[in-house]
């Protein structure tokens, strides 16, 4: 407890302890001490940019080079600093104009800034470095680089402006950030990148940039200063003196800690994690093998134990068979009586005694007429003779038994003849059917209610029955709603020579019989849509849906309904016609766009090519005429010739992108050319298989459409698939031309991606405009296979 109180007291007294020690490290005159006494707290504005200053959310505090610098200054000045962070330099300057900031570290002196800040002497020099792949110990000079050595740099930035104004031989690649400039070097888009030392020290800690190193100095150092308010010149003087009083070792420690590139350790090495993954995978495989062996042994033991249990169960079942037989009779839910020829009961089980309200002993030796008043002796003897003569068959009938309390119990009675030793009995089985008869009555009421509901449904409700396989199918029920739907009463439609088939439009009867016969043959659900004719000759669209039910093994019924869908069908037909018109319009626009691309490609190639040729000729003439007079002019002319050559290549690339000339050589050559171009750009091996013989004639629209689908498919592979190989196959299959693109990438679920992927939608619509089909076969982790089929032109003409 004392230690906690002492620590808290130190925290509260730390500002006064720092103020008391200020006079020991820094010599200030009386006016400066008085000014600081009047301003005990100064507001420090800082731009939140690593590694100079950044806010740590977990610790809820600022950290960075400038923060530690001011902590060192605070130890020599009797003031306290309150920090205020801003996203960029513009926000900081607005805060200064609003009077919210007194001083700010990490500023570069600019002419515009001199009107707002009083700058201190530089306290840190941040060089801009040239970064590239590891090239040994050779330093790179910017004067030695040419137009082929692309340099990535952040734009806009002071480094980019410096390179543009001082090195005309450099080819700069603009990037939005220093990270993307380094990534451009790793992706071979640029040979070098220009990054300041502060950002390089931060980014080099990531394993992604472990292969990069500093290969040269750009020669543009960034001098960091502390800016103070212009209306407080005393503060600027005090800050300068405090900076000069700082030990050089302190600044060196700050620079070493925050501006020295840290290489990733072994845990950041991809090789380390790859080896660790291989080791863990090997251990996992060994564990799975051991688990499989243990499961196999366990399965064998379980089978042996199961066999032993089954043998034991059979033995126990054999021992209990006799006891269970007697127990089953005594505890059966069906009442059982053994009755002698004289109608007296010899045995009664527990169930019949409970049904009738007697005890089992009370029923023994009593006449059967006691519980069935209608069984007089004459009738009983007649039944005895009938059952005894049949010997093996049982006689069943319905009856009402009399209970002990005088009430009647509905029952099903079954009689069987039994010979036991030297005696003969009739076994009487009595089943209480009170609930069944109540349920039957409720069922009849329910059927009547359902018929009433069906007669008021806006449609035709029917039941179709087939009693036996191959037997005629007849309508067992048709609701009264038929007259409202088609104008015929239900009795007329149920006639054997009429039926619903007589209502079907003649043009749709074949399809009607096909669907109905298939449903009847398979005893499955039946569905059909088509036109029907009403009694007054009007045409209506109807939807028939019937569900099949098996009443027993052979008896099948179809319960269904006929709906009037005329309005919905009319809307559907209009929608289909509108879709067809939209697809035709899209095809026309696509054709116009391809023609316009071809026209622009020709104009770009011909017109710009001629102009560039003349320009190259004029440059060569100038070189011949005046190149020997001035060496600098000759170098300029050489640079112009290189620029013209680049423009030639650019014109060819633009014309090729608009419409590749290789299409004129045929779709097979165009596919091979595009695959080789994809392979060169992505470094992914691409296997191409095209027919060796001459392909049948293919229209220009279909050739361009297939080529655009191939381009989109390869673009999707490059962007999303993460594939190692790609296979492209063009083949003629019957009267169709088939193009397939397969990769071994990560795959996807086509059903889940269909709504979000406009690329797939575009390819599908393009293929539909060509009159073809597109199929995508993919599973997550199993790659993608895209297949396109279009009809050959000669086949379309013959059709």
Would you kindly provide a written description of the structure presented here, covering whatever features stand out?
This protein has 799 residues and is an alpha+beta fold. The protein has 4 domains: 230 residues, D-Maltodextrin-Binding Protein, domain 2 (3-Layer(aba) Sandwich), CATH 3.40.190.10; 106 residues, Beta-Lactamase, CATH 3.30.450.20; 201 residues, Beta-Lactamase, CATH 3.30.450; 132 residues, Histidine kinase-like ATPase, C-terminal domain (Heat Shock Protein 90), CATH 3.30.565. It is built from 24 helices and 28 strands. α5 links the parallel β9 and β10. The radius of gyration is 49 Å and the shape is elongated. InterPro entries: HATPase_C_sf, HATPase_dom, His_kinase_dom, PAC, PAS, PAS-assoc_C, PAS-like_dom_sf, PAS_fold_3.
Keywords:
799 residues; alpha+beta; D-Maltodextrin-Binding Protein, domain 2; Beta-Lactamase; 4 domains; five-stranded mixed beta sheet; five-stranded antiparallel beta sheet; 24 helices; 48% helix; elongated; disordered N terminus; disordered C terminus; coiled coil; phosphorelay sensor kinase activity
């Amino acid at each position: 407890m004392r230690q906690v109180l002492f620590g808290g007291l130190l925290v509260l007294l730390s500002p006064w302890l720092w103020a008391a020690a200020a006079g020991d490290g820094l010599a200030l005159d009386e006016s400066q001490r008085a000014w600081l006494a009047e301003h005990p707290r100064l507001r420090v504005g800082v731009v939140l940019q690593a590694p100079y200053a950044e806010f740590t959310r977990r610790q809820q505090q600022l950290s960075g080079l400038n923060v530690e610098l001011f902590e060192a200054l605070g130890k020599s000045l009797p003031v306290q600093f309150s920090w205020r962070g801003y996203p960029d330099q513009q926000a900081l300057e607005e805060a200064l104009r609003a009077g919210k900031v007194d001083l700010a570290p990490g500023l570069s002196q600019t002419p515009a800034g001199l009107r707002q800040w009083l700058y201190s002497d530089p306290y840190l020099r941040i060089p801009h470095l040239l970064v590239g792949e590891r090239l040994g110990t050779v330093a790179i000079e910017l004067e030695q680089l040419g137009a082929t050595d692309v340099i990535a740099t952040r734009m806009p930035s002071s480094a980019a402006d410096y390179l543009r104004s001082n090195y005309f031989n450099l080819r700069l690649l603009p990037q939005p950030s220093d990270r993307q400039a380094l990534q451009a070097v790793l992706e071979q888009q640029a040979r070098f990148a220009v990054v300041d030392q502060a950002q390089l020290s931060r980014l080099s800690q990531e394993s992604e940039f472990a292969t990069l190193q500093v290969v040269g100095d750009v020669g543009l150092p960034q001098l960091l200063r502390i800016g103070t308010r212009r209306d407080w010149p005393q503060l600027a003087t005090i800050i300068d003196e405090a900076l000069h009083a700082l030990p050089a070792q302190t600044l060196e420690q700050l620079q070493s800690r925050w501006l020295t590139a840290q290489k990733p350790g072994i845990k950041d090495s991809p090789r380390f994690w790859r080896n660790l993954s291989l080791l863990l995978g090997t251990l996992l495989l060994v564990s799975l093998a051991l688990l499989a062996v243990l499961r196999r042994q366990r399965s064998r033991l379980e089978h042996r134990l199961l066999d032993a249990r089954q043998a034991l169960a059979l033995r126990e079942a054999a021992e209990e068979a006799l006891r269970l037989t007697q127990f089953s009779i005594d505890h059966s839910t069906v009442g059982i009586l053994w009755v002698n020829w004289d109608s007296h009961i010899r045995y009664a089980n527990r169930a019949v005694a409970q049904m009738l309200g007697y005890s089992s002993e009370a029923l023994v030796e009593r006449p059967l007429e006691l519980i069935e008043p209608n069984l007089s002796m004459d009738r009983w003897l007649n039944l005895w003779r009938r059952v005894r003569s049949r010997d093996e068959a049982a006689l069943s009938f319905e009856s009402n038994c009399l209970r002990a309390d005088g009430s009647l119990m509905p029952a099903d009675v079954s009689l069987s003849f039994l010979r036991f030793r030297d005696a003969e009995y009739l076994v009487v089985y009595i089943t209480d059917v009170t609930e069944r008869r109540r349920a039957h009555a409720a069922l009849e009421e329910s059927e009547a209610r359902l018929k009433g509901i069906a007669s008021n449904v806006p449609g035709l409700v029917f039941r179709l029955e087939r009693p036996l396989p191959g037997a005629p199918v007849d309508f067992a029920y048709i609701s009264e709603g038929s007259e409202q739907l088609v104008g015929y009463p239900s009795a007329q439609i149920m006639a054997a020579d009429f039926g619903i088939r007589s209502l079907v439009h003649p043009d749709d009867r074949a399809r009607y019989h096909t669907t109905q016969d298939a449903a009847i043959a398979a005893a499955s659900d039946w569905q059909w849509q088509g036109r029907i004719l009403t009694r007054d000759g009007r045409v209506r669209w109807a939807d028939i849906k019937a569900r099949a039910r098996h009443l027993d093994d052979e008896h099948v019924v179809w319960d269904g309904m006929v709906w009037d869908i005329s309005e919905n069908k009319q809307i559907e037909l209009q929608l289909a016609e509108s879709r067809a018109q939209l697809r035709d319009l899209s095809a026309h626009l696509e054709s116009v766009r391809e023609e316009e691309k071809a026209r622009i490609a020709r104009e770009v190639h011909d017109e710009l090519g001629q102009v560039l040729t003349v320009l190259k000729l004029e440059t060569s003439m100038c070189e011949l005429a005046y190149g020997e007079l001035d060496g600098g002019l000759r170098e300029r002319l050489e640079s112009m010739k290189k620029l013209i050559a680049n423009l030639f290549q650019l014109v060819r690339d633009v014309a090729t992108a608009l419409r590749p000339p290789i299409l004129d050589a045929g779709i097979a050559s165009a596919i091979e050319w595009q695959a080789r171009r994809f392979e060169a750009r992505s470094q992914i091996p691409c296997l191409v298989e095209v027919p060796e013989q001459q392909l049948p004639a293919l229209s220009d629209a279909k050739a361009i459409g297939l080529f655009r689908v191939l381009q989109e498919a390869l673009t999707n592979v490059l962007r999303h698939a993460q594939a190692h190989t790609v296979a492209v196959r063009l083949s003629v299959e019957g009267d169709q031309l088939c193009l397939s693109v397969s990769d071994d990438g990560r795959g996807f679920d086509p059903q889940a991606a269909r709504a979000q992927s406009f690329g797939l939608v575009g390819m599908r619509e393009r293929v539909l405009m060509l009159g073809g089909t597109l199929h995508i076969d993919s599973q997550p982790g199993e790659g993608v296979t895209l297949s396109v089929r279009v009809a050959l032109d000669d086949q379309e003409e013959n059709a």
